[in-house]
Amino acid sequence: MVVFQSCLFAFIHYLRVSSASDNRWNAEIPKSIVGLSGSCVVIPCKFNYPSDGRKHRDFTGIWFKDKDIIYHKETSKVISTFKGRTSIGDLRHNNCTLKISSLQHSDSGSYKFRIEIKDFNKNTFLKNPVSITVKDSPDLPTISVDKEVTSQKEVTATCAVSHSCPPDPPRLTWSHKGTTKSPSQAQEDGQWKLTSSLTFTPSREDHNKPLNCSAEFTPAKTVSNNKKLKVKYPPYNVNVQSKSQVKENESVELNCSGESYPPIHSFQWFGSTGSLLENRSTYRFNHVTRYTEAITCTATNTEGKNCSAPHKFNVLYPPEIKSGSSCESETFIVCVCIVDSNPPSEVKWLGPSSTFPSSGVEQNGSLTIFTLQGWRGFPDTVHCSASNSEGNSVMTLSVPHHGLFIYLAVASAAVVVILAVISACLAKRRCARRVKQQNDQNKMKTIQKSCSDRGKQKSNDIYTSYQDNTNYEYEEICLPSMSDEDEVFYANT
What we know:
Blueprint: H1 2-9, E1 26-28, E2 32-36, E3 41-43, E4 46-48, E5 59-65, E6 68-71, E7 86-88, E8 98-100, E9 109-117, E10 121-124, E11 130-135, E12 142-144, E13 149-150, E14 155-163, E15 171-174, E16 179-180, E17 184-188, E18 191-200, E19 210-217, E20 221-228, E21 231-241, E22 246-247, E23 252-261, E24 266-270, E25 276-278, E26 282-285, E27 296-301, E28 304-307, E29 315-321, E30 326-329, E31 333-342, E32 346-350, E33 355-356, E34 360-364, E35 367-374, E36 381-388, E37 391-398, H2 402-460, H3 484-491
Parallel strand pairs: 2-11, 13-21, 22-29
Antiparallel strand pairs: 1-4, 3-8, 5-6, 5-9, 7-8, 9-10, 9-11, 12-14, 14-18, 15-19, 16-18, 17-18, 19-20, 21-23, 23-26, 24-25, 24-27, 27-28, 29-31, 30-31, 31-35, 32-33, 32-36, 34-35, 36-37
Helix pairs in contact: 2-3
């Protein structure tokens, strides 16, 4: 109740009466007011009474609908359909504002106010009735924004909606991102107005798009409205349109277009050196060749200008075999055929009696490099035959053989030298092996003789007393006698 009275007291400034009315009964009440079903309605009211020089403290305010009491401080006097749904302002401050909660369609009708002042007087303000109308849907919000806004330049829009319940106002939301200021309220003829402001920076993407504002009421009732934005921006997406392909020496017409608001009012065509070619949206280029340079278009409106990307013609022309095409023979024969054409050409290598396949193909822009490689069987000349959809061309290339013959001679000599070296190494290896075998045989004979002599000595000393067991380290290992076959076997290991 205190919160409600404080809220209503803020609107007292609206309900003023002239100083001449201070000495008579008077009330300031709107003639009509519209409320939303399920919400509340607040009827602003301010009264005055004749002054008798005394300060009165005891007031009784009564509100009637027809003859039924819908508000009284003694709730037993209030009809059942309004009990607990009505409240009044601070009568000691001449505030007779009435609030009706949970508004129903049956609440529609005419209402009057009566004031009773203890030990003084009372009065019913019969000449100041207020009519309440209850509706199911709220009014649409009203959006205000400049007729035209400029891209990347800050702008403020406002959204306002009427309502009848200041203690529980609707909630306003925007469809566009930006800074929203706190809503403000103002009263007009018994209705309250809620206003929200949005500060944002529009872009060209916002052009012709709706700026939407929604109002959500209690209970759950939402209404929205929008206003189409007109955003001014310089030309964008400037493009040059023409035929996708044009044959060499033909003429072609170019068209320039772009997006902008306001619309583009002028076009200019420029060559690659910056020279002005034309001053309208279309341009006719005569006798296009493969060497024709790219051109650009510039579009201008009141907000600025922008230009297209350089437009390069796709010119179709027959093959041209370049003078750098030739054959060489170093380690092997290599023929190169360099073809300039659009579209790319196919190449055949032709001999007097046969056709050779290309060994490699390399594409570099409009140039195609065809390579032919081989060792032998080449004729004295080969023909490079290039063709595409626009025509064909043939060049005869001479095949030099002297380099190949020199290479073969040098290679043959190198093979002979290598074979001689290999033979010498094999012979040397066989000699070394024979020497080793002879040495091994002599050594084996010496060992056999030594063992035979020692055997004789040991047989003579077999009965001699053993005196020193440290002589073992000087003993020779004696091998058994070998036959001739054994000698051959060990000599070969």
